Amino acid sequence: xxxxxxYDLLKTMVLHWDPDFTKLTPSEAAQLEEAEAxxxxxxxxxxxxxxxxxxx
Length: 56
Fold this sequence. Notes:
Blueprint: H1 3-17, H2 26-37, H3 44-55
């Protein structure tokens, strides 16, 4: 079984078991909002760009 197929199967099973799995709790939403407002927070996009630059 390929990794992609296994991932898709697991994702489907989790979402059927708990349809709210991908939703943030009120506490998580508050933490995310606080982190996004912090100027020192580094986005995933920035990290990925930095990693790609070092590969080249």
